[in-house]
Design brief:
The protein is built from 13 helices and 13 strands. It has helices at residues 52-59, 98-103, 115-118, 125-136, 141-154, 160-163, 173-185, 203-220, 231-235, 255-260, 265-272, 338-343, 345-352; strands at 2-3, 8-21, 24-37, 41-45, 67-79, 85-89, 108-111, 191-195, 223-228, 240-245, 248-254, 323-324, 330-331. It has 354 residues and is α/β, with parallel strands linked by helices. Helix 4 (125-136) crosses helix 5, helix 5 crosses helix 7 (173-185) and helix 7 runs parallel beside helix 8 (203-220). The two termini are 40 Å apart. It has a domain at 262-352. The strands form two sheets. An eight-stranded mixed sheet has the order 7-8-9-4-10-11-13-12, sandwiched between helices. The chain has a five-stranded antiparallel sheet with strand order 1-6-5-2-3. Bound molecules: iron/sulfur cluster. Iron/sulfur cluster binds next to loops.
């Protein structure tokens, strides 16, 4: 352990989680690096299959075989009794050991994509929430029950006391998602990982859940890692955005900068495919092609078969490395390197003014 003086809550360095299948090795997370500050919201966006959920499960140490985290560091800043913070590499802790179990569900909580599938069908929701509280807090069963009722009220479950005795199948999808949020927040985590928390919900319930999470985040001053395929959803919530493609973060920076002036062609394409009220179009813009087979080994930039700006002879041969731009942004694209100069002096001149 080392003393960590800054305000970084979680720092993920060069994380690599691979799945070893009969068909080959799928590099679901491949050299991913990012950090989350205390009380900040990081939006992680990208198409399905780009490694967002596996990144979250790697942080929680919940990757199951044939998946393995093969390299990297996940440095979590823990408050010590002395008042100082110490940095713990979660990957060095046994996944089922006492310290990791105390962090998982207590200090770092997760809301899963499918609330109904994540709740136990054979246990009452009250029992599921109180069990989590008793695991992580030094309280009696009756105190845990009171905390659980209070959390259900905070997430606006009507008749919270009666709902404690309900089973998941007796609740609507939106109610199940609120129960998951209540369970995740019941121990006042420092970090909430929300993995597509509104995917299964209708737009009205989605808006309510997002508003609820924003309110609780401000009230509890917790950090959120908000995973979604929808850039529009993170626009209002995130302080920072990380855009993932094929297991790598291709652009990372302040949310305002990324929405105002996206740099990576994939981010630009994602934003252009959002429907907008101020534009009249007969069709929706899409990103050409599909996400490649996870077992494929593409030369050069993994986005080059789909990229409108791809430079033949450059992008299909050279693997782009992260480049730091002046505004603190990080982007993985050869357009921002000297290779663009060789390919197109005009383009290089444009990018040099950014
Ligand atoms: Fe497109 Fe080339 Fe940049 Fe990849 S490196 S995103 S192919 S321009």
């Amino acid at each position: 352990m080392t003393v960590q003086p800054n305000d970084t809550l979680l720092e993920v360095k060069d994380l690599q989680t691979h799945f070893f299948m009969a068909e080959g090795v799928a590099k679901a997370v491949d050299s991913t690096t990012f950090s989350i500050g205390r009380g900040k919201v990081l939006g992680v966006v990208g198409e399905s299959g780009c490694g967002k959920s596996v990144t979250a499960r790697s942080i929680m140490r919940m990757v199951r075989p044939p998946g393995h985290t093969v390299d990297g560091e996940i440095l979590y800043s823990r408050a010590a009794e002395t008042g100082q913070t110490t940095s713990v590499d979660l990957l060095q802790l046994p996944a089922t050991g006492a310290e990791m179990r105390s962090i998982r569900g207590g200090e770092i909580s997760m809301i899963f994509q499918e609330p109904r599938a994540s709740l136990s069908p054979v246990h009452r929701i009250g029992d599921q929430i109180t069990e989590n509280i008793l695991l992580h807090q030094p309280v009696t069963p009756s105190e845990a029950e009171l905390i659980a009722i209070d959390m259900l009220q905070q997430v606006h479950i009507p008749l919270a006391e009666q709902r404690m005795g309900a089973f998941a199948h007796q609740l609507s999808g939106g109610m199940c998602q609120r129960v998951m949020i209540a369970m995740a927040l019941s121990c006042h985590p420092n970090l909430l990982i929300a993995d597509e928390p509104t995917t299964a919900l209708d737009v009205t319930t989605e808006a309510q859940i997002l508003e609820l999470m924003q309110g609780l985040q401000a009230e509890l001053d917790m950090a959120i890692m908000f995973i979604t395929h929808d850039l529009g959803v993170v626009a209002d919530m995130a302080d920072e955005v990380a855009v993932m493609y094929l297991g790598k973060i291709v652009e990372r920076g302040a949310a305002a900068d990324i929405f105002r002036d996206p740099k990576h062609p994939y981010t630009i394409a994602l934003l252009e495919s959002l429907p907008r009220m101020d534009q009249k179009r007969d069709w929706l813009q899409t990103i050409r092609g599909v996400v490649p087979d996870p077992y494929s080994t593409l030369n050069g930039c993994p986005f080059h078969p789909r990229c409108a700006d791809s430079m033949p002879g450059v992008c299909d041969e050279i693997v782009p490395q992260p480049i730091s731009l002046e505004d603190g942004r990080e982007v993985r694209c050869l357009l921002y390197t000297e290779h663009a100069t060789q390919e197109s002096p005009q383009l290089a001149e444009e990018t040099s003014h950014q």
